C-alpha cells in the first residue's frame, strides 16, 4: 500500500481538478448527475487525463486524495461524501467486499477491458474471486533495494537482513504486514498465515534482527538509499525504481524465497450515485493512450497488456518494474485476515516496536 506515489498526499489530501475544496462540495456534487466523485491515493494519476475525460464525456470530475487505505475507509464510512469511484489496495477491497460495501462492476460494455492482461486478473481473484468488484490499475512487489558499493555479497535471499556485517545499515518497513513478510517467507510460511506458532516464530526472528536495524521507515527509505545512509532497505518496487533513477549504485531484488505482489484497483462503493459514469471512467483509464500517460507519470507496473506492448524494450526488461514469471510465481497477494487475526498481528507488532 501501499508506495512512493503517495508522497504528495501529505501536502495535499484534499485536491480536485478545480482546486482545493472538493471535500466541502462533495455532497452537493453528488446531486449533480454530471459529476463523478473520485477518491485515490495521493499523486497517483496524471492529472491531465482528468481534463481529457471531462472534455470527452462532459462529466465533471471531483477528485480527492488520501494517504492510506485505512484513512480512506474511515472517511468513506463517515458518510460525509458519496464517493462514486475509489482506488485502493487488494486487502482493503476484500474487506469491503466481505462487508457488502461494493457494487459489481459491469465490464461487458467496456471497450478497453480486454486490454487487461488475464495473468493479473487471475492474481486479483485472490481477493475478488470472480473479478466482479475490482479492476486493476497498477501493481508492484516488495523486495530489497541495496547499494552495490556497500554490499559485497550477492543479494538474493531475505537471510542477508540478519548479517551482522550490516549492523545499523539496514532499513525495515515500518509496516506490520510488510515487515512480517521477511521472516515468514524466509521460514517458508505464507504471508497470509494466521498460525500463531508461525507468527510467534516470525516475531522472534524480528526481535533477533532488531539490534541490526538502523530504522523502520516507509517513504523515507527511498531518500536514505539515494543518499547512501543505508546499505539495504526492504522497500516497494516503485520506491526502488525512483531510488535507482537517482543513484546508479543501487539495485533491487525480490528474494528467492518469494514476497508480496500488491494490486491497486478501481472499485465502486455501494453508496455511489453515478455508477454508469464511474464505469465510463474505468474504461477510459484502460484506453491505451491514457494508460501510457499514467504509466509515464507513475512508473509502476501496468496490468494493461496493450499499454505494455507500447513500451520500449528497455522498460519491458526492467526487472524492478516487471519481474519475470519465476519471481511472480513465488509472490503472494495479501488477504484480509479478519478482525481477530488482525488484532493479533497488531499485538505482535506493538511488542516488537516497543522492545
How would a textbook summarize the main sheet?
Answer: 10 strands, mixed
Strand content: 15-25%
The overall pLDDT, averaged over residues, is: 91
Q: What structural class do the secondary elements suggest?
A: alpha/beta
Strands, total number: 10
The low-pLDDT segments are: 1-30
Secondary structure: helix percent: 25-40%
Apparent shape:
globular
Rg from alpha-carbon coordinates: 20 Å
| Order of helical and strand elements | HEHEHEHEHEEHHEHEHEEHHHHHH
State the distance separating the first and last CA atoms: 25 Å
- Count of helical segments? 15
Q: Could you walk me through the main structural features you see in this protein, from its secondary elements to its overall organization?
A:
With 355 residues, the chain is an alpha/beta fold. Helices cover 39% and strands 17% of the residues. The chain contains 15 helices and 10 strands. The protein has helices at 22-30, 48-57, 69-78, 90-98, 118-124, 176-186, 196-210, 220-227, 237-246, 275-285, 288-298, 305-308, 313-316, 325-328, 339-354; strands at 35-41, 60-66, 85-89, 102-103, 135-147, 170-173, 213-217, 232-236, 250-253, 261-269. Strands 1, 2, 3, 4, 5, 6, 7, 8, 9 and 10 form a 10-stranded mixed beta sheet that branches. α2 links the parallel β1 and β2 (60-66). The model is unreliable at 1-30 (pLDDT under 50).
